[in-house]
Amino acid sequence: MWEGIVFPLRFDVNGEIVEVAVTTLLNAGYAGRSQEDVAAHVAELAELGVPAPTHTPCLYPVAPYLAMQSAEVPVQHGRTSGEAEWALVVAGPDERDLLLTVACDHTDRALEVHGVAWSKQAGPDVLGERAWRLVDVADRIDELTLTAWAGGAQIQHGTLAELLTPQYWLDELRDRGLLQPGTVLLSGTIPMDAAVDQFADRWRVELGDPKTGATIACEYAVRRMPEPVE
Question: Which Pfam family would be a valid example here (predicted)?
Fold first, then answer.
């Protein structure tokens, strides 16, 4: 568990502000509901040079300070991109303290071919500033939608039925002793439209509830840092 300085995330939950100091940050990977489709995706990535995992789904621990709510993500080069995800936030000890929000896992694709865990550590997890209580949407979790735009073009769209459920990950966290206040878990992502350039200067992700028409969004600009002097 992270014991360094933490800066709390703030979520608007139906008008109530909930602060969470992140102590454990986890990124799920290869987390599709259909593990047959996941196996096919692993094979596709292997052709691009991305190392295949030995076990799916994966769970990558990430430095907690990489969980942020930001309008800008600085990057070192032009081959980074986001991913549409939902995030589970453990805000307290009770069931009503489990929050669901939108997230974008900004990943270094150049580094990804050397190690997925390294690439996750090289970029932030940007979370929305609003959240829903999981108990309020649990009865229709598979109907919720995820949509992402890269540079204004829609690059991802699907439902949470395509991914392993929050309950699956709650059970995993409980088994691992990680279901504690301050834990944040990102879900893994849905397929991208290969015809859209993912290396864009702006990303936006929305988590939508078709029943109510409500959405939660996170959006940020991608800013290239100056070249190093060495």
Answer: DUF2848
User: Which residue has tokens 């500033």?
Assistant: 129
DSSP 108: E
Distance set, CA 134 to CA 95, 123, 144, 195 (Å): 8, 27, 12, 34
Q: Which of 136, 147, 103 has the alpha carbon at shortest distance from 14?
A: 136
Structure tokens at 157: 């769209």
Residue range 147-191, pLDDT digits in tens: 999 999 999 999 999 999 999 999 999 999 999 999 999 999 999
Phi, psi dihedrals of residue 56, rounded to the nearest 5°: -130, 145
Please check whether residue 22 is in contact with residue 3, taking contact to mean a CB–CB distance below 8 angstroms.
no
Which of 14, 229, 193, 211 is CA-nearest to residue 101? Answer: 14
Task: Specify the pTM.
Answer: 0.92
218, 67 in Cβ contact below 8 A?
no
Phi then psi for 142, rounded to 5 degrees? Answer: -70, -15
Is the CB of residue 167 less than 8 Å from the CB of residue 79?
no
Candidates 87, 111, 85; CA nearest to 101 is 87
69 CB contacts (<8 Å, ≥6 apart)?
Answer: 9, 10, 126, 127, 128, 129, 218
Neighbours of 47 (CB within 10 A): 7
- Could you give all domains of the chain from N- to C-terminal order, each with its CATH number? 9-224 (3.90.850.10)
